[in-house]
## 1
Amino acid sequence: MAVCSGDRSWGSRLNFYASMPIGHELRKVSTIKSVKAKTGRSGQLVFVTVGHQVFDGDTLGIDEEHDIVYREEPKADAPASTPPQAPGTTDFSRKIEPDPVLLFRYSALTFNGHRIHYDQPFCVNSEGYKGLVVHGPLLATLLLDLLRREKPDATVKSFEFRAVSTVFDNETFSVHGAADKDGETFHLWARRQDGALAMNAKATIA
């Protein structure tokens, strides 16, 4: 079994309760909340939800539910899924041109040793991808950064995201945002070069 970081059932739900000051010693508590086995079009799947809580002393700063999908090696004749198209209208956006250096740096930053993000020969020849896989969390980081650029003085209260389709380093993609009528909820998404939806997200601010 291998982590399928590009699976559309991959995502997280985060709530931010308190600031985490630089220089403080933080404590992280992780708990497996659920494990569910299913059979999909590509074979056996195991869905795992892990809870992460980050404390500054006794103060809870971040509470996260993290969904991970494990899958068996897909069969050669497994049908390919067709992702939905991304929304056509947007309030603000940014074009991203990924490259191996960006992916390598993010892997190093997040201590991610999965070779599909930085070892191009392995990724293409052994895993069958058409390029290096852009990290799901990197897409989420870019979406949250897009909101920060649009609302630099806002405080993010919650953020949730779910991967929908895979993005590769040899394709340009874009990140988008649109404000809800309440002015505090923002819908965010990543759009692939072919117009397909790569990630869907939502954030609330104060």
Note: The helical segments are 100-109, 120-126, 136-150.
## 2
Amino acid sequence: MGITEFSFPTAIRFGAGARHDIPTALQNKGIQRPLVVTDRGIVALPFFQALLQELTQAGLQPSVFSELGGNPVKSQVTAGVEAFRQQSADAIVALGGGAALDVAKAIALMVHHPGDLFDYEDGKPDGRAIDQPIPYVVAIPTTAGTGSEVGRSSVISDDETHAKKIIFSPRLLPQRVFADPELLLDLPPKITAATGMDALTHCVEAYLAKGYHPMCDGIAIEGVRLVAENLAKSVADGSDLEARSNMLMAAMMGAVAFQKGLGVTHSCAHALSTVYDLHHGLANALMIPYAMQFNLQAVPERLARLATVVGADEPTGAGFIAWLNALKAEVGIPNTLTEAGVAVDRLDQLVAIAFADGCHPLNPRPCTADDIRGIYTSAF
């Protein structure tokens, strides 16, 4: 497959080598001084230096902000805004996994908006309006996980409490996406597995979420099919370009689909990332079979349809859960929280944070704090 272009939900250039078209796209917008926002790990990779060289050879004056690592926190956003202003940058090139892309979108927001980042938290009763100009943002994903490149939100943690805050506005959606599966080649198996399970969880939870949205449902089901056919291949052979392409597409589809909503898997995962600083995709992967077991009585027919889509041995909800467990084992994800190094002694804290999280209200089966405690307990 060559490079294709479509506009859903933003302008996306998709295919092997798509990144080489970035300099021309920036030039066409009259951009001269892009700030490249990425993480410390990516800066050391050969393709990154090659990309910087391409930008420079096109007559652009790129600068780099790479003080990122792990889950994104507010101090990184503040430092990035300072870098943008110091360099007199006129656009942002966001390059990396979900953390780097979320930080980049938050930097873009705060360049021209007053106050504190968390003044703009979604749903905050006295929250500030997102009504000032936002710099041009180009997004280049290097993992197939969050789909943040096609998302309208940014999830940033408080440095002190580690509590996750969601900043949301349609204006945070990057204006251009360059989705190049070559950038995912030879991503380590553990990262491939965790990010791929994140994409799967987005698709599954979006499909099961309360509410009427057949368009998101259709996208979610196709995303699940792509993950089922390609995640294990991507983990087993890091150089499988077709599998990487399909996973990159599945991740974007998950992010589009979950505008319908998510569920209790994500609430439990957010708490695990808050308390234990677990990778978000790994946290989702650990919790999803146990959350689906909880949901089974509420949406048995939907889980049975997912079983059919993934080719599970049994075309039932229980068959889908068995398939999830088998996939986790195949891609090297621990089966239980205990195996992942999570201790039961902080269960009360996990339950409190998960119950306060904004994802589970759209779960197909309502969750009390005791229900969440039961899901965690089964996961240990």
Note: The longest strand covers residues 91-96.
